[in-house]
Amino acid sequence: MTKILKNQLNDHFQELLNSSNEEELQVLSSLLKAYDDKKNNKYATYLSALTQIKTRFLENGDYEVLLPIQPLINNPLKMVHGGITATLLDTAMGSLINRVLPEEKAAVTAEMNVHYIKPGIGEILRCVAHLSHRGNSLCVAEAKVYDDNQKLIAMATGTFAIINRPQSQ
Amino acid sequence: MTKILKNQLNDHFQELLNSSNEEELQVLSSLLKAYDDKKNNKYATYLSALTQIKTRFLENGDYEVLLPIQPLINNPLKMVHGGITATLLDTAMGSLINRVLPEEKAAVTAEMNVHYIKPGIGEILRCVAHLSHRGNSLCVAEAKVYDDNQKLIAMATGTFAIINRPQSQ
Amino acid sequence: MTKILKNQLNDHFQELLNSSNEEELQVLSSLLKAYDDKKNNKYATYLSALTQIKTRFLENGDYEVLLPIQPLINNPLKMVHGGITATLLDTAMGSLINRVLPEEKAAVTAEMNVHYIKPGIGEILRCVAHLSHRGNSLCVAEAKVYDDNQKLIAMATGTFAIINRPQSQ
Amino acid sequence: MTKILKNQLNDHFQELLNSSNEEELQVLSSLLKAYDDKKNNKYATYLSALTQIKTRFLENGDYEVLLPIQPLINNPLKMVHGGITATLLDTAMGSLINRVLPEEKAAVTAEMNVHYIKPGIGEILRCVAHLSHRGNSLCVAEAKVYDDNQKLIAMATGTFAIINRPQSQ
């Protein structure tokens, strides 16, 4: 049965490959890379693999997430899709909190408020998240997204519930 | 040059095909379908094609968006990724408003507030958006997401700025 | 010492009384009534006494708070002050949750999102709060404010943390 | 008719004066001061006069609002009422924007998101508002409230619609 599925997928892929123009092929390449990266655990989710985000702590304790802009994540107006921007902000705030919590705890988003300020265009969106309040049961974070010219693109605040980390996975 | 890219992509695809298990192949199939659907204008963005949402107006004027749950959109805890849920809510509210506006106008999200209430699990998430206020320069909408058992999964409100629709595209 | 304070207050009051026009006297009357009502425990806070809100459960389990519009709560544009509208929404949602919780628990507002839609003018603002989600540690509520003509004036959602009720008071 | 009202108010006042304890008299004093200050245009609204806020621009362009804590603005748990904190945040953000706009323009709150972090206790709450984005039709601001020990008490973001300033009144 897996064999049949593989044959079908290959047929579909050959057809898509033949009918694609160069811009579309770039997207197809992004999709295969995302699939590969998730498969090899370079990313924990397909969504983060699709966005190819890069994360790091800054020296002041804030948390930075870089998002390369590519056709795959754009809306029909050729700007970054608002859902992707929201994902970027949520990921930055949630990851920051999860990284400062003790190992047996996890943070889940209870609430997020996003302001969209300018279109997300250019090469890279840079998101910086800051931990505003660290409580025992609730944390509050804020995050801002900037474009290549350091212009503010979007900003958010979020409330995160601290729970006991589910076992395994 | 396109030829070289096609050969590279095909090599990468064959390699991925050979090394994938059945669950992974289902995701690969979803990725190819999304690419195909966007290519053929069944969806306006790759993100909506990836999520395979289905939309319709309800009789009372509300707007419904159905999102099939699939591994592609899950987080590591096998629940729908919060960024996808935010995208679903934003899409439902924004699409509703764009569909009730005159043709020369468009709505862009100025602000969105999302409450995450329960994990998104099961077969389908159903989002229903309602137009709370229709103004000349600002509209306000609200939306709720339910699971297969009609349990509330998430809810949002949004402020949308009404602009003159950009030409073409 | 209390005697001296009383004399000072009386002097101040007589001076204010003499210099007030009729519209101002109505406000002065409202202030004294609020002070009296809080003193006699008709209201739990000076702020609620100043606003003279009336509350009740509706048959469907929602919670209604009526706010009479008076000069005391207006902004310079002779509309209800946005801070009063926010207070009305917060009070309605928080009171609803506190009334459905067991006696040893209390709800405190963790986060509130308010949309201001139309000016609050007329005789009475009517706020209706609905419990969207009842969790063990977090509750989510939504509320809407209507004017005399049932037009939507404002709406809000809120996240409330459930805590053990502090002793006494 | 004004004479009769004055007599009634005076009777009521004397009765309240006689039956009040010292803590209550402090509140009565605050109420008279607020009434006086609004009457003499020291404050534009009764609500701001009741809260006795003090405002100023900081050197970096941010806007500071100081709120003295007094029994008049507390909730039954002897902390600053959440509605007052929301008013403080809204006032700080809205005043900041109104002060940077040209004279013929005004800002009205379209949406505000408030996070309550710690109880408002002590001598003074200090709110600092920052203009995050200045657009032609929408502005976005953020504000934080600190207690005497510079601990974060609450934070907010807001979306403000820019309108033509209504003529006089």
UniProtKB/TrEMBL annotation, chains A, B, C, D:
Keyword Hydrolase applies: yes
Sequence ranges assigned to domain Thioesterase in this UniProt record: 79-153
First-level EC class: hydrolase
EC number(s) from the headed UniProt entry: 3.1.2.-
Keywords: Hydrolase
Leader sequence segment: none
SUPFAM superfamilies per record: Thioesterase/thiol ester dehydrase-isomerase
Gene Ontology terms for molecular function: hydrolase activity
Annotated InterPro entries: ACOT13, HotDog_dom_sf, PAAI_dom, Thioestr_dom
Coiled coil region boundaries: none
Similarity field: Belongs to the thioesterase PaaI family.
Name of the protein this chain belongs to: PaaI family thioesterase
